[in-house]
Design a protein that fits this description.
CATH architecture of the largest domain: Sandwich
Order of helices and strands: HHEEEEEEEEEEEHEHEEEEEEEEEEEHEH
Number of helices: 6
Helix content: 10-25%
Strand order of the largest sheet: 1-21-18-23-16-15-14
Strand content: 35-45%
Oligomer: single chain
Shape: globular
Structural class: alpha+beta
CATH topology of the largest domain: Jelly Rolls
Amino acid sequence: MERIKERSREPEPGLNSYDAFLLFTMEASRRRKEGKVLLRAQDNPAELSRHGYGRRYCNPSNWNEMSVPGWTISVTNQQDVPRGLHTHRGGGRLLYCVAGRGRTINNGVNLDWEKGDLELLPVTRTENSHQHFNVDPGKPCGQLVLMFWPFMEATANETRQVTDTPHWKGERKEELYRPDDFVPDQAYLEGYPIEFQGPPATLLDGLFARRNRWRDYMSRARWIVKEQDQPLETNRMGIYRWYVHPDFDDVAMKSVLFWTHQIPPASCSGRQKLQGGRIHFVEEGHGYSVINGVKYEWGPQDLILTPIVSGGVVVQHFNSDSTHTAKLACAEPNWFDILGMDMACGFEQLEDCPEWKAGDH
């Protein structure tokens, strides 16, 4: 009788496209709300790949577990031999030096960096073919590597390997390596010159005028932002050193903001309400963050994500060490010129850090 009942059961009604869309948005909201906020270094051990040693926190295989999907975040552990040579079609990466001194050879150009410097690999018309080297053999060297995939997807981004690091002894999978036609011929296609002596006559020409200004800007922009050239500022949130900011007019990438945040011993940051999506890498120190009322304790090389949730997040960071400064490396997508500063939740300062209160402003 049970078998007959199963056979006579009516099939589940099909889902129309609008209902499927509603369910998709609900599931995406649930994932972000319940996703990981703290990623501990000890839970993400360094591994050897054909490109070199590194600790990978976020990547496409675990985005569905994250409160902030879309980031690809890793920390390289540079050895005495060079990393592999690989190439990025499209570009759009930030590399912050967390230890040692190194050099990147990108499209034949030397880019020298040291601890505290930020390397930018901007969006280019063809590719960024590069290799990283430790210039102080026997000493530690490493970079925090940040990529925000939604921006890179828009530029048809793709990565292929060219040569392997000498440490790699695994199999060579030919499909992972750069083919001769990796950069298609149309990438080199150029139109006739369009120049303007006065205001553009049409809105379309206005876009070409913007293009001209952008190309001129990129011919002068910095690919290495040196720590020594970026002053510290004390603001309502704490002690910041800005590397990429919407107001900067000389850096080779503006799609992702980047700064470091120093928290003095036994002190704390300001308390702020904002939309999530901001990431914090613990460069030095021990402490904790309170995000929407939940406490997350962190230490060196841990990663803190501020969740993207309806109504935004309220966040504050604390240094639990009474003798040593904590230092966070922070980044967030530069949505602000596109979606506005309030980001559907409001951008509000709720409490100032002690250093701001004590200052003369």
